[in-house]
Amino acid sequence: MAYSFPEEVLEHVFSFLTSDKDRNAVSLVCKSWYEIERWCRRRIFVGNCYAVSPEIVIRRFPEVRAVEIKGKPHFADFNLVPEGWGAYVYPWIAAMSAACPLLEEIKLKRMVVTDESLELISKSFKNFKVLVLSSCEGFTTDGLASIAANCRNLRELDLRESEVEDLSGHWLSHFPDNYTSLVSLNISCLGSEVSFSALERLVARSPNLRTLRLNRAVPLEKLPNLLRRAPQLVELGTGAYSAEIRSDTYSNLAEAFSACKQLKGLSGFWDAIPSYLPAMLHVCSGITSLNLSYATIQSPDLVQLVTQCRNLQRLWVLDYIEDRGLEALAASCKDLQELRVFPSDPFGAEPNVSLTEQGLVSVSEGCPKLQSVLYFCRQMSNAALVAIARNRPNLIRFRLCILEPRVPDYLTLEPLDTGFGAIVENCKELRRLSLSGLLTDRVFKYIGTHAKKLEMLSIAFAGDSDLGLHHVLSGCESLRKLEIRDCPFGDKALLANAAKLETMRSLWMSSCSVSYGACKLLGQKLPRLNVEVIDERGPPDSRPESCPVERLYVYRTVSGRRVDMPGFVWTMDEDASLRFS
Amino acid sequence: MSPEKGNDLPESEYSGCLKTELTLGLPGGLETPKSGSKRGFSETVDLRLGSSCEDEVSVSTPPPSKAQVVGWPPVRSYRKNMMKNCKYVKVAVDGAPYLRKVDLEIYTSYQELLAALEEMFTCLTICNVVNERKIMDTSNGTEYVPTYEDRDGDWMLVGDVPWKMFVESCKRMRLMKSSEAVGLGPKASSKGLSIS
């Protein structure tokens, strides 16, 4: 064909395309573009490990260098998914070990990773560089020792928020003495001590180290030893941030901090005591990201610290900051983009701090760049939500958690439909929304009508009837992930919008009113969906068809039914009726 | 509807110190350590919210007591565990075949701690002396002095510093036989306070 470019040229052009969307679009143009693209795609993102099999991925993209895979549904974070549900990474590692020896990066989220998998990774990929295990579980420090010992080119080891069985702190010593390529290390989730001298030596021989996130067991007195050996750090997670109050400890710390001229991000601060906070003052002006969400310090000290960070873009903090602290934040940190306020006492019956809707309103007024919010509080009003919506039409993520379910507008005692309605109507770019408080079907009508860019929606203890679910499924054009718990949504809306589910990544419904019969029907009608019933009461067909299932997880897949389901998960498909006879 | 909220105590989400304490005891008896827990969430089991899902949505009256619902509020287990101050330290008793571990964070005073130790090592009782704390093995009259190793590696007598500071700096404990604790032991005579 005279008018087509040679393959090499096309490949070169495609190499500038980094987003999956673009690459997917390119691959649909014609067969030859599909072929060329698939041979040069290096990064793959699998949003649901059961949506596709490792074999299919490898067959299509044989030159993959970096994979990112997500496993369990989001609500697994809140104990709604029983142990043993699945999301095992081993099959992926095994397949890639055989076919992709040049693999460099593995990033996993909410997956079960065993020591066996880690050992296989360490031995299979000679150029392995990046391992990120986010909210994973199933491995021990022995697995980490394999990684340390065998991955000569490792740059990043990030265990963020994973559950690791701590067998020994000596795994760190398995990094060879001539290993110097470490760029990022995050061991903040480890419970017990790592060998400090090994850590110190590792840091000392890692000139490219940019990110170091320590675990709680590293004492504050020892932090300067590390900082002095890594003044080039950009991100630091401290260990426990308390010590006996001694002036030499303080001055050591302050001096060490002031030598770190490139610090942009700080986290850690477990058990923080206010006396040691001023040691950081020198670095505050450069800080753009501050995670104080484990620091149980009170408002005045928080304010003093936060208001020094004039260039702050991201703040995670406990509700100890209170309304007045947020007001001060709004006045000082005009570049703030993301705010997360976590509850210090989520299960207490009475409020222990003076944090209300007012704090969030202040920040929405004072911070013009605010786009991402996660806010736990005890009271909310429609007026406040409307104000927030009007102040910040540029919001992209809005997650509000009123601690008590079904709490109405505390001023008018009405549902919060109007308030959330204002959010979706004004914030036209909203991609993620979590609802709470007293809500009727009306809020879902607003969402279906206005939230056209919404990709992820989380609903709990809300709505009156199937109409609510119907509004969402029929109206939210961009919806990819929908997770619902404890809502009176049932069969009608689900079956009426069954086809919608094929356009989404997944749907989770627990403690709702979806019957077993409807699940079966859904599974039979839509073979490209896996309709999985999770029920710890025993086989669903031992109960009447009209009986609601405990939990339902529906997701699209090109790989058919899972083969690793535990005893409490049943898949609804064409064979369902045959299998249960 | 909403079957999950009915019957199970949401203990699994609070993978806390209470749940993980073993109850092996030294020869002499098997007792679960007194918890002395101050955590409000362990108290209420009222599951009103379970039933209200079936009722009409009530607008004006929120549930009177704080109900425990699995996975709500949506705070990740990781965060819950991190927020808990779990401070497990080893406790050795001279002459005992194995050590125990206690979580110092669940006690609020020396008295509570010693009482817990007393339950753990059931052959021992606390002897209360003015300003001193001693423990006695009533079966053979051996006296023990509670000591602890602090952050600097020094062995200190339990009870000198404020409770919180003790919890902060204690790395492990040892109930040392009085005969060894030369120079540390109390001078005043002990008033026994035996608890069977």
From TrEMBL, chain A:
A Gene Ontology cellular-component term: nucleus
Taking the first listed entry, what is the main subcellular location of this protein, grouped into a coarse class? nucleus
**Alphabetized GO MF terms:** auxin binding
**Domain F-box, first and last residues per copy:** 5-46
What pathway does this protein act in?
Answer: Protein modification; protein ubiquitination
**One Pfam family from the UniProt entry?**
F-box_5
Instruction: Tell me where in or outside the cell this protein is found.
Output: Nucleus
Q: Which UniProt keywords apply?
A: Auxin signaling pathway, Developmental protein, Nucleus, Ubl conjugation pathway
GO biological-process terms attached to the record = auxin-activated signaling pathway; pollen maturation; SCF-dependent proteasomal ubiquitin-dependent protein catabolic process
Could you tell me which PANTHER family the record lists for this protein? F-BOX/TPR REPEAT PROTEIN POF3, PROTEIN TRANSPORT INHIBITOR RESPONSE 1
| Protein name (database record) | Protein TRANSPORT INHIBITOR RESPONSE 1
Record the organism.
Sesamum alatum
From TrEMBL, chain B:
Under the heading Pfam families, the entry gives: AUX_IAA
InterPro entries for the chain:
AUX/IAA_dom (IPR033389), AUX_IAA (IPR003311), PB1-like (IPR053793)
Q: Which GO terms describe its cellular component?
A: nucleus
UniProt keyword list: Auxin signaling pathway, Nucleus, Repressor, Transcription, Transcription regulation
Residue stretches in coiled coil: none
- PB1 domain mapped to chain residues: 86-178
Q: Name one GO biological process term.
A: regulation of DNA-templated transcription
> Where in the cell?
Nucleus
Transcription as a keyword of this entry, yes or no, is: yes
Residues annotated as transmembrane: none
Chief localisation class: nucleus
UniProt keyword annotation of Transcription present: yes
What subunit structure does UniProt give? Answer: Homodimers and heterodimers.
Protein family (similarity comment) = Belongs to the Aux/IAA family.
**What is the protein's known function?**
Aux/IAA proteins are short-lived transcriptional factors that function as repressors of early auxin response genes at low auxin concentrations.
Q: What is this protein called?
A: Auxin-responsive protein
Q: Which organism is it from?
A: Sesamum alatum
